[in-house]
Design brief:
The complex is a heterodimer of chains A (84) and B (689). Chain A is built from 1 helix and 6 strands, in the order ββαββββ. Chain A is mainly beta and 84 residues long. Chain A has one domain: Ferrous iron transport protein A (FeoA) (SH3 type barrels, Roll). In chain A, strands 1-6-2-3-4-5 form a 6-stranded antiparallel β-sheet, with no helix packed on it. The radius of gyration of chain A is 12 Å and the shape is globular. Chain B is an alpha/beta fold and 689 residues long. The interface between A and B is large, with 36 and 44 residues.
């Protein structure tokens, strides 16, 4: 991975776009959830759905589609990778 | 969960796996039992146990709740971990989704740490095939060092190999182990000798697991492990020392938990990478296209309400016809019963008790309540099987968020459609205690099948003759939406008053759409539900019918004991637009909502001489001739939607929360809403008149 790449918040990744996780921060219980589903630094993640501006986002993570509230992804930063 | 005496010594294996990988389907295939299944995470709550027969005898299968990991965050996941770690089954069957093997392997690797006596069942291979994903199970077996088999449990394929596989697994002593970074491995070496004897006796891989758990230091688990003699006080002391050393070594960039999680994920990624070949594309594109419609800004809501309305319309039209058919049959049968009891020379009062009391109410339950249930719920189950419910949760999450509730409450709300008691138990999928409580207390605003059938029957009687079935279906949809809106209002109310707090976070899995097995689902749910409902009807309705008849026929003063009761209730009932007979039926119907309408009709009819009943409109005539007005009908419908939940649901709330206070709240909350709304409606109608 290129160290020069620009880190950005996961919420900036729109539907159909892909990214690689840089850092995962969340309150403890959610953090454990992220670990369980394998959402970790280095994991590839595609945004597949979004419900309105403030609604849930759904991401493909390790083969599964997982929906998360916008509030809960604020602590996740990613490197953008372009389209899926 | 404890082994019963007769089962002691019989080979026992546990089924573990991520939620929604078809574990319950595998379990059902193995045991012939009928655990309810559905395409969404969290279907199985609690454990189920069944006997599985195979050529060489029998073994016991234990279905554990689905879990993403053995590092638990909810009581559900704790059940799974504790069962595997402490109950020590002879073997574990890890069920995986072939379409999502990598994520599933994370759990498999964690299970292997506790016990190598594990077999992997790669399930849903048919579905994965269609999606262009294939798994090389031989290679997977070689890499993990344990038996691996392919199954498609829904079609019964491959399940026959499971008994042999778990038997082979039971004799294993070693399997693939995850390698951790240097600093953790060092701690494992240092801590291993300090493990308790009970821990060491379970083999080196278990000791390794103990060491990692010691580093994670989950207080509750440490106490359990100490009690079981698996770890020693020195172990605990040094575990904390090692943890401090590791924390210092890892620095601020990462944590032990993250490092451990990364080790699992990296191993799973590597293994899956070499066993799974995927040319996924078209199936995924299809799913996404369907999702765009089902969750679209306008289409999402339109589809949701449209589907409900169509389901209701089918139910109303179908149920009407079946009801009329059943009723003419029941009428004839009632005549036969009467003649038979007469011929047998039974005393007159007994004949009447049996025919006018017990038989009649049983007939009402079967004829009027059963058809809507038998039509609606199989159809609803189909939606569940396809995977539609998580999409509903995705769509409605915004509303739940605004109400301070968890988005998964949409799922428990949907479960409430079938049975509020099941919905309340299902609330275990909600991790936050505050949000779980909100979901439990507001569940009964959604009409369960008993209430739903009553609503459908009442609307059939009053609305279909006037507005036709389409309009009635729309009315029923509006009514259910009202119930949903009230459950949200109640959630909001609770979240700003008694159950104040921060909304918690959660992850909702949206599974791929699955092709349901239509015939099988229809037949199963009709037969299972029909039998269940008939059973419940006999148990609760028969004595209720007898009691009502007796009350009606015991004279007190000018009237009967029954009229005395209803007269006492009359003034209160009048305030909310009903009468004493109706309110009495609601109260007597606490055991099961299915019997409320039959009780009302019996209540009116019992004071008259025998009334023939051969179709639904005659049922309406009884109500109309007993003084029902438009207001009565509207208020009864609204009160049916919002009153107390049945006794089973209340007991379930008590069991789940461990407190009478919350059961009382579950009783009072919908009742308060119902009384206020009915009072308001009644008053407005009186003024309008």
């Amino acid at each position: 991975m290129d160290g020069e790449e620009k880190q950005m918040n996961l919420e900036k990744i729109g539907v159909g776009k892909s990214a690689r996780v840089a850092d995962v921060k969340a309150e403890e219980s959610m953090l454990k959830r992220y670990y369980d589903i394998g959402l970790l630094p280095g994991t590839k993640i595609d945004c597949v759905m979004q419900k309105g501006k403030n609604g849930m986002r759904a991401y493909r993570i390790r083969g599964a589609v997982i929906a998360i509230r916008l509030n809960d992804i604020r602590g996740i930063t990613v490197f953008a990778e372009g389209c899926v | 969960m404890k082994e019963t005496r007769e089962n002691a010594g019989i080979f026992t294996f546990a089924l573990a796996g991520n939620p929604n990988v078809g574990k319950s389907t595998v379990f059902n295939e193995l045991t012939g039992l009928k655990q309810h299944t559905g395409n969404w995470a969290g279907k199985t709550v609690g454990t189920a146990e069944g006997t599985c027969r195979y050529v060489k005898g029998k073994m016991i299968a234990v279905d554990l709740p689905g879990t993403y990991s053995l590092i638990p965050r909810s009581p559900e996941e704790e059940v799974t971990r504790d069962y595997i770690a402490f109950e020590a089954p002879d073997a574990v069957l890890a069920v995986c989704d072939a379409g999502c093997l990598e994520r599933n392997l994370i759990l498999v690797l964690q299970i292997l740490e506790i016990t190598p006596k594990t077999a992997v069942c790669v399930n849903l291979v048919d579905e994965a095939d269609r999606r262009g994903i294939s798994v090389d199970t031989e290679k997977l077996s070689a890499l993990l060092g344990i038996p691996v088999l392919k199954t498609s449990a829904l079609h019964g394929r491959g399940v026959g190999g499971i008994p042999a596989a778990v038997k082979t697994a039971a004799s294993l002593t070693k399997a693939y182990a995850v390698t951790y970074p240097e600093c953790i491995e060092k701690a494992v070496i240092n801590l291993s000798p300090l493990a308790g004897e009970a821990g060491k006796s379970k083999g080196p891989s278990f000791v390794r697991w103990l060491c990692v758990k010691g580093l994670e230091y989950d207080e509750k688990l440490m106490i359990k492990l100490s009690k079981a003699g698996m770890i020693t006080p020195e172990f605990l002391f040094y575990a904390r020392r090692e943890r401090e050393r590791i924390d210092a070594e890892l620095g601020k960039q990462t944590t032990l938990e993250e490092t451990v999680a990364e080790a699992y994920a990296a191993a799973a990624e590597k293994i899956a990478g070499s066993c799974v070949s995927s040319c996924e594309g078209s199936a995924d594109r299809r799913d996404r296209a369907i999702d765009r419609v089902l969750t679209g800004k306008f289409t999402g809501t339109a589809v949701m309400i449209g589907l409900l309305a169509v389901l209701f319309w089918i139910t109303l039209v179908g149920a009407n016809k079946i009801s009329d058919l059943l009723m003419s049959g029941a009428d004839a049968l009632g005549g036969l019963l009467r003649r038979a009891t007469d011929l047998a020379g039974a005393p007159e009062w007994f004949c009447r008790l049996l025919c006018d009391g017990v038989y009649r109410i049983l007939a009402w339950v079967v004829c009027v309540m059963l058809p809507p249930m038998a039509i609606f719920f199989p159809l609803f189950t189909l939606l569940e099987d396809i995977g539609y419910l998580p999409r509903v949760a995705f769509n409605t999450d915004g509303i739940f968020r605004h109400c301070g509730a968890c988005g998964k409450q949409a799922l428990t709300t949907c479960m409430g459609f079938g049975c509020n008691a099941v919905g309340v138990t299902g609330c275990r999928i909600i991790d936050s205690p505050r949000e779980r409580m909100i979901a439990m207390l507001t569940n009964s605003f959604i009409p369960c099948n008993g209430k739903y059938a009553t609503l459908a029957a009442l609307l059939s009687i009053f609305a279909v003759p006037i507005g036709g079935s389409v309009l009635t279906a729309a009315l029923l949809t509006a009514l259910i939406l009202l119930g949903f809106a009230m459950s949200l209002a109640a959630s909001k109310l609770l979240s700003v008053t008694f159950l104040k707090g921060k909304t918690s976070s959660f992850a909702l899995e949206l599974p791929p759409f699955r092709r349901p097995r239509i015939c099988r689902t229809l037949i199963r749910s009709v037969i299972d539900r029909t039998l269940a409902v008939l059973g419940r009807a006999v148990i609760t309705a028969a004595p209720a019918g007898a009691v009502i008849w007796l009350l009606c026929n015991i004279p007190v003063g000018d009237g009967t004991l029954y009229s005395l009761c209803t007269n006492v209730l009359d003034p209160a009932a009048a305030l909310i637009g009903m009468d004493g007979v109706i309110l009495f039926a609601f109260i007597a119907g606490i055991p099961a909502n299915e019997i409320v309408l039959p009780l009302i009709v019996t209540g009116y009819a019992a004071s008259d001489s025998v009334i023939g009943y051969s179709n639904l409109s005659q049922l309406g005539d009884i109500l109309l001739s007993s003084g029902w007005s438009v207001t009565t009908a509207i208020c009864t419908v609204l009160f049916m939607l919002m009153h107390w939940p049945c006794a089973t649901t209340l007991l379930t709330v008590k069991k789940e929360t461990g407190s009478f206070k919350y059961a009382a709240a579950a009783f009072a909350l919908p009742l308060t809403f119902g009384v206020i709304i009915c009072f308001f409606t009644n008053t407005v109608m009186l003024i309008l008149k």
